[in-house]
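Hi R.,

Here's the chain you asked about this morning:
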Amino acid sequence: MSDKSVLVTGATGFVGSAVIRKLAAEGCLVPVAGCRRSASVPAGVEQAVTPSLGPEADWRGALQGVEAVVHAAARVHVMDEPETDPLEAFRRVNVEGTLRLARQAVILQNTDDQAALIRSGGLRDEKAVMIRGSGVDLAQMPFRDEVPGVPIVAFAARLLQQKGVEEFVAAARKLRERGISARFWLIGDPDPGNPYSITAEQVEAWAAEGMVEVMGHRSDVPELYAQAHVVSLPSYYGEGLPKTLIEGAACGRPIVTTDHPGCRDAIEDGVTGLLVPIRDAGALADALQRLIENPEERRAMGRAGREFAEREFAIEKVVDAHMAVYRRLLSSRRVGMDI
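And here is the predicted structure, written out as tokens:
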């Protein structure tokens, strides 16, 4: 791949930065593009600025002399913004904007997004490549055996309504009413100014009620997962593939999440965890109770989750999968194929 020019967007993100390093090591020219210049881009890397990531973006300058594009940029939090039509705002950038940039090949993180883009008519089925998630550094998320004690269920995310935090607390309340012995951790903070954020007062009220233990924002999530017994994210948010779930699986913890785009791609239902309907605290409580009361099944799912993470989510494999797509694109251009 030496002497080839590969444009990278989202270059400061987890996948984008890893791809830049890999491409540069192979001798590629790696210009980057985005809505603003970044000081974290490696020295010597050419940066192009586009005013928008939406369907009106003009990428012609950035694409001059480029033989392939790695499009890793997105508006992942646009669903939280106080837009008149937040879903339309999400689609403008992450669907229409992506289609404008590149119809040659699209890499998606979950099967629902893949199907939606194919149905839109902008992509043929053979041109849509699905790579699960943005990967996880398994060395930073080691597998550890469960610690003895009262089972702990961990929820780690921004405290937004769509992340299912209210359902998580309601499930904890139901389990307490059933006499189930367990602890429930809320790892994360409210998002002030976000219209869908749980308020600090509500979090304090839950803590005072004894429903949950409020851990706040933490940088030692692997250590917390090592102490926990189950990881849960009952989200109905517009997820790509929730990193907190693949991190939980990597740490060897069974997952309880929703049968929702992105979330369901993070587990193998009945093998590495359990799926429940969205906004259903009762079903969530039932699934959590099953794992709390059945330690052998819980541990077996945790071991299977680690194997699943090693097979599907290792950052090295995710980057290699991206690189295989880019090599195919460059090879196809050399022989003049329609890609």
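One quick note: Residues 335-339 have pLDDT under 50 and may be disordered.

Cheers,
M.
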